[in-house]
Amino acid sequence: MQESTVITRSEEKSSPYAVEMRDIYKAWPGVVASNHVNLQVKKGEIHALVGENGAGKSTLMNILYGIVKPDSGEVLINGTAVHISGPRDAIRLGIGMVHQHFMLIPPLTVAENIVLGSEPGGIAAPYDRKRARADILALSKRYGLPIDPDLRIEKLSVGQQQRVEILKMLYRGADILVMDEPTGVLTPQETDELFLVLRDLVKQGKTIIFITHKLREVLEITDAITVLRRGQNVGELVTKQTNQREIARAMVGRDVLLRVEKTPANPGPVVLHVHDLEAQSDRDLACLHKVSLDVHAGEILGIAGVEGNGQTELVEVLTGMRKPTGGEITMADVKDGQAGTPKNITTMGARGVRVAGMSHIPEDRRESGLVITESIEDNSILGRHRWQQFSWRGMVLQLKNIASWAQKLIDEFDVRTPSATAAMSTLSGGNQQKLIIARELEANPIVLIASQPTRGVDIGAIEFIHRQLIAQRDAGKAVLLISAELDEIRSLSDRIAVMYEGQIVDIVSPDATEEELGILMTGGHQDPQ
Amino acid sequence: MASPTVQRRTSAPASQLARWMQKFRAALGRPLIAVLVAFVLGGIIIMITTPGPLDNRFITAVSTYYYLIAGSFGSLQSISYTLAKATPLIFAGLAVAIAYRAGLFNIGAAGQLTVGSMVAGIIGIQLAALPGWLLVPLMLLGSMVAGGIWGGIVGVLKAWRGAHEVVTSIMLNWTAFYVCAFLVEGPFQAPKLSQQTLPMAPQATIPSLAILYNQTLGTFLPQIPDPAQYTVDAGLLIAFVAMLVYWFITARTTFGYELRVIGQNPKAARYAGISVRKNIVMVMFMAGAFAGLAGAVRLMGQAPYQLISSAFSTDSTGFDAIGVALLGRTTSIGVLLASLLFGGLQQAGPYLQSYVDVPGDIITIMQALVLFSIAIEYLPSLQRFMPSFLVKSSRPPLVPSLITTKPAEEKGEADMQAVESGHRATSDTVEKTGLKPTSSGQEE
Amino acid sequence: MFFPILGRVLISADFWQASLQFAALLLLPALGGLLSERSGVINLAMEGLMLIGAYVGVMMAIATHSVWLGVLGAVIAGGLLALVHAIVSINFMANQTVSGIAINLAALGLTNFLLPIQTQGQGIRALDDALRLPQLHWGPLANIPFIGPVLFQQNIIFYVAIIILVGIQFLLFRTNIGLRIRAVGEHPHAADTAGVNVRLVRYACVVSSGLLSGLAGAFLSLGIAGIFNQNMTAGQGYIALAAVIFGKYTPVGAAAACLVFGLGEALSPRLQDTGISANLLGTLPYLLTLVALVGLVGRTTAPAADGVPYEPASE
Question: Signal sequence: where (chain C) (predicted)?
Fold first, then answer.
């Protein structure tokens, strides 16, 4: 029934699989997350588990790690059928997992995080700091993963945190390492380093399951590939015998455009002007240093950078969610190709900035862009509920107007829902995102700030969102795109600003190579390696 | 390929009915279960503690409930007592409920109520010369302002110092009890008495509802005979007004909208430019005002019309209000129904000892059991055993901030359907997993 | 008038002895609450746990003619009631604040309900000395002026509380168990994936809070008061909670906070002669807490996952 290519892999009868999952079935209420899935991972290989978001990759791995209990199916480790009822069982069987969101405890030290649950001396003993330290240093030397065991996790960079996660698995003697989207938060250089470590681990006899949706990485590092779509197996491939297009086809079930089609930009006057912006982070540390930007009408300015270099704070300051400590932000309307008088929006709150004509697609949409328990109607006016058409003098809600507005968003963006009064939580994730995009675009903004607009979205939907962003650009809006996906930045932007440690280190053309951008993203132009 | 519009437009009457059913189940289902569980467990406790053979014990338990019902709703007179008990509970319940809308736990209704009654009492004593039409509104207003300030302090401390509202409220409760006891036993002590103030002057009281009726509508409609036996006072009417105000604020104003956003998702409030601090202070002031009214109406509507210093810390209204608000799911009608239940229990409880030899404090245990069972999330625990159509519920979790702040991370993976891919989106994805709904049919 | 009396009170051994006694009474439930909060379960129930302990302690002591069995009963009763809180908050994912309040209400209701049943309506008379927890007298040490009565003539539970304080401070920061408790309170998901049994840790901590609060209840009824009165805890459990927060969720900090509250509590009855109303003085501990919360301590840092129910399969 599936049209994707299935290549039978040569069987080696003598060595059993390190991991074999047979006929795994798991249904949540209303959703089949894993529909009779099979997975076979040979000893000593790097095995890619690929698929779109929601394809069931994480569910499958969580079953392997004992976090999720399957409804039926069998798990074999090194040829023996096992019953894994919790992470403790998995650890005992030599399975380790690095979760997509690191499972580290920020106020505890590296050593405490690593030994937690398998402390030297056993549960009843006093905490033996010296031994933990020595064990970890030995381990880090053996695998070439340098780390200071006494630092608190909150002081570490993302790359270092990942190192701690890997050490955590190795400390527990794991032979089967599961890595869930490990490169999502890394720079190209850090990714290369990680790959070196992974290759080294395989040489030492470890088996690695590598979950990703980045096809280039699959081709670069893995030996074999299992493709999932909608909770089902759709392909078992050997990396050497396949290509990006074939994997993508298997993942999506049809051909996908890997490049965005767009016409050259036709930039107008400067609409959003940012000058010498300074701001502090939640921990009262300076996180933006004299950031200056101009965004023109009719262009997409992309901001590239490793996450945590001030992008989040920059977006928050621009959208009025965070007060700047210095600098100026102005915004001008465009009429007949001419910019109007710039309006100073530096100190306006989020509400004022919206009134001035800004729309904001937030990075953590479900967490901050929606009130999941409330109705679509309520969510359709979030941030604009005091606007004249939605409330009388900003005080009494105009329910009829709100209802017709919500219906308009539903109709024009094809949000699938039984009614506009349904709670947001009854919508699928994709439709929830559509509503946010509808809400922000229908407000007819002057400036659109799109922060990680395709995070956690599957390939089909990415196309849709990209097309919307380009449509906004072509309609003469100024679009500021912030994304951790370098590919996305490069294919959509008309200019790329690179952020590093709270500064714009350079503004380059989208033709810049990935290496050039990668060097800028790590502050390389100031301090070449 | 299914047309997207088919999904959306279901026939109106059927879905209307279904929605009503859904609404009814969602609104009353859990509270009814909670009350039922509490009553069953209460019965078991009675059966355990009563002497005698098993069937005697059973009869005692059953007759306890009989007397509870008869004593609270068995006659017009007992209903009137119950209503009188329920009136302050309505105000106090609204005080807890409105704060809850913003995700705040107002455990301080007791203290707000105390200062409210105190200030109403002071006004009533000091300005006793004023005519009733001026004095009564003044007292009510005074109680609202006093309670509001007491609640507002909690809001200010929460908003600007991040002090947890539960802890500051507890401290302010005891401060209120002691300070008001000091005022009653000190500056406002009645001559020759030690622990109470003078009774309020007659024009400083709220008349009994029956007497008020006889004096107004009763002049051309049939009179209520022997009105003195019906003690419920006109404070009940004020409570109805308060319910109406509460409904309007929470359901029809941008302020109520902002409260909901803050309560359900503070991050979204920040995104939307809603001032969390300002709203926290305002909602705590309003909560305090409702609670203050509870104190004033109790003082002015019911005998002995005076403040008693020892009663402040033993009055359970402020704590019962927590149960009232939760059981009533923070809606005004719900608060009314829950107040009637709690008021009825409190009315009938004290007589149990003499009728069935069961200590009246069984009703305190029952109230605790109601609280337990309303607080428990039965659904997640039970849903593994239930067919999926029963599980799908659009209700917000009972506790706004606590339960929804779980990192939404991975579970909400977006699965936006590409419009052009032609997949039929199912609208009823379950929030719990957020995984992509698998269409039951094969792909074309 | 005021300052001479205050001065006299402050140098009297009797005042300091009473302060330390109050402090020890608060310290036990505070340490219990601290364990519970550190493991991520909000605990407002110390009030009710103490009350049930006080009640069961007296009833058991009378029934068995042994004060020690009374204490044992109190500790077990506190533990059992805390177990309810644990089940409701951990397995049923109830709102922990509401559950705590319900526990308090249930304890109040149960003790008031059972008292007339178990005493045939007679109530309880003051206990004989044989049924009360002994005051210890450390030989020659007890005779040192001032220091003797303050430190070496306390109730036995005072010394037990000190030992428990040291024990919990050690447990929390110097042992593997403590590491797990802190991990579970900060990030249960991470702890779970590292192989820590989150529910077990939380159960143990919440039940411990019941055991300690029950002991405090016995201290109150069998030690300090020598009788059980209705609602005799009168808000002390809540003050213990305040001490946890005031003490920034550390055992030593909580102990310091308890000492401050103990001083306040001992001070107010002793200042009656100054003509200041006992009612006004009674507000002292509460105002002190408020001031502490607002000014001195600043923003307190609760464990990150405090109050968040943990669902292992929520992924």
Answer: none
